[in-house]
Amino acid sequence: MSVYTVHQPPLGAADAAGDPYRLVFVRDGFSWWAFLLTPLWMLRHRLWLTLAIYLLISAALDVALRGLGASVFTIVIVGLLISLLVGLEAGTLRRFKLARRNWRNVGVVTGDDLEDAERRFFDAWIRQNPAGRAASTSPRSAPAAPPAPPAEQSGVIGLFPEPGAHR
Fold it and tell me: Which DSSP symbol is given to 70?
């Protein structure tokens, strides 16, 4: 299961509860795309400052290693280690960008994939805010059925027959 953090943009004057379509789910954990295609991944997620820092560090390390007479293999290994670090911290880099833009962390949710995490988050969100459900239900809906009476307690758990019963 993956862990996702949920972020809400800053609320404007017209937004009372926020638009659920604008929430961003950021997966925690290793990102293969950030590891394999680091600069393109940063461009895709609009991490401009992070991309600039990444390019400066990569260029400085490349110049320093070449100045020290390091082999091409060593330079490639250092580049892969930097990409590995970006892949490990991909979610943190995105959360840092959102925090700089005053986005608020509104929750943490787990799920098998993004769709499952969104479903779990919005189920809990609707349960916390029943007023959000009022628009989707009609006032003339039938009342809920009364709860069933509790079953008799026995010493048997599950669907096994009563102890000592003979057929």
Answer: -
The size of the chain, in residues, is 167
Whether residue 30 lies inside any domain: the answer is yes
Domain membership of residue 68 (yes or no) is yes
Give the sheet arrangement for strand 104-111, strand by strand. Answer: 24-28, 2-8, 104-111
Q: Is residue 57 part of a domain?
A: yes
Model pTM score:
0.70
Smallest CA-to-CA distance from 92 within 131, 126, 39, 47 is with 47
Q: What total of structural domains would you count in the chain?
A: 1
In a domain, 167, yes or no: no
- 66-103 tens-digit pLDDT: 999 999 999 999 999 999 999 999 999 999 999 999 99
| DSSP output for 103-126 | -EEEEEEEESSHHHHHHHHHHHHH
DSSP 63: H
Q: Which domain holds residue 34?
A: 2-119
Nearest to 117 by CA among 13, 55, 27: 27
